[in-house]
Amino acid sequence: MNSIRALYLENLELFRPIVARELAVHYADAARAVRDGDGDAAAAEIAAPAEAAVVDAAPAIVPAPAPVATLPAGFATTSAGPFVLQTDVADPAWTAAVAQVAMALPAVWSERYGLPLPEPLAGTLVVYAREADFQALARAEGEPVDRGIRGSSRGERVALAIGGQPREDVTALLVHELAHLLARRAFGRDDLPPWLEEGLAEELALARQTKDGRLLPGTLRGRVRARALDASSSRPAFASRFEVSADGAYGALSSLLAAQRRGAMPILSKLLALPAEEFRRYEGRRDRYTASAFFVRFLLDGRERRSRAPFHAYLAAVAGGGPADGAALATALGEPLPLLERDFAAWLRLQATVNR
Fold it and tell me: What is the reported pTM?
């Protein structure tokens, strides 16, 4: 979590509206709960992230395929819609949260990206309580294990570790890794450029989730908080000094905006052409993933969604075996990459103040 006064000073105009909006959302939720006669919920809502007022019914559970992984004793196996969930996490609330997200994701993924998912869906989700156990699995399978890697997606198996992380971060990691599995099913190929492969996975992982595990595409999960450093002062609130902290998607966005101001954000034409090894290199990896995710979101939601249909057409062509490089994307959108980069940079600067 970033928690420095400089973050606020650099983003003064960006963060003030967010803080005010978040407070307004919480108090509105609390007032609605009191009106509906649920005082306990009102107290909980003030401390919890804002959620959608309307929650759709959870998807029906369908028979799951047999497990494909052999795990040590102590792992329980249960159904999570079309997936098998194997875990050594003892808390049933954790298991339920993971299962809800897994069941809800396929429909959201397909609608968001405009691609059908071949039936029947199948896969195994392995959730470790300890990060060390996940890393042991990754090493045994020859996968790289470095700082920040807590999940993997391989074939029809997703593996990740809870490792003491907040539940929202764990379910976001699950969304990212399971989105890779869904992309492999939808595209039927393993040569997607890394910006597209990771951008599609991370764009949905940025989103908030409802209480039943459904994603709210286009939203940002996490919080921006401000603490007055001179609360006892007589100066008005708008003139106060603040310490600002941002986490979740807001923290990633803050990091990317800081890179943009420094001139260190990846140039779009280079980002779209980076080979996988360089794209996933640890140094600067977070900003490359975040930039790819927000570029996908820009194509879906930016500029009054005028690029959504052409982007869906590009994805469909890629799923049909067509080229997936930057030139193919520019052709599908009918715009050169320099123009896209200009509009993307301007759109990105507005995202911290957009009402989500």
Answer: 0.77
Q: How far apart are CA 44 and CA 279, in angstroms?
A: 41
Q: Is 305 left (phi over 0), alpha (psi -120 to 50) or beta?
A: left
pLDDT at 173 over 50: yes
What is residue 224's three-state secondary structure? Answer: strand
Buried b (16+ CB within 10 A) or exposed e, 60-81: eeeebeeeeeebeeebeebbbb
Distance CA 239, CA 320 (A): 56
CA distances from 277 to 211, 249, 266, 282 (A): 37, 24, 15, 10
Rounded distance between C-alpha atoms, residue 81 and residue 182, angstroms: 14
Looking at residues 113-136, what average pLDDT do you find?
94
Rounded mean pLDDT of 204-224? 91
pLDDT at 345: 94
Tokens linked to 72: 């040590």
- Asked whether the predicted pLDDT for residue 36 surpasses 60, the reply is no
Give the end-to-end CA distance of the chain in Å, rounded to a whole number.
21
Read off the tokens for 253: 């966005």
Q: Which two tokens stand for residue 251?
A: 């923290």
Interval 67-93: pLDDT, tens: 444 666 789 999 999 999 999 999 999
- Tell me the Ramachandran region of residue 148: left when phi exceeds 0, alpha when psi lies from -120 to 50, beta otherwise: left
Average of per-residue pLDDT across 236-262: 76
| 128 burial via Cβ count (<10 Å: 0-12, 13-18, 19+) | buried
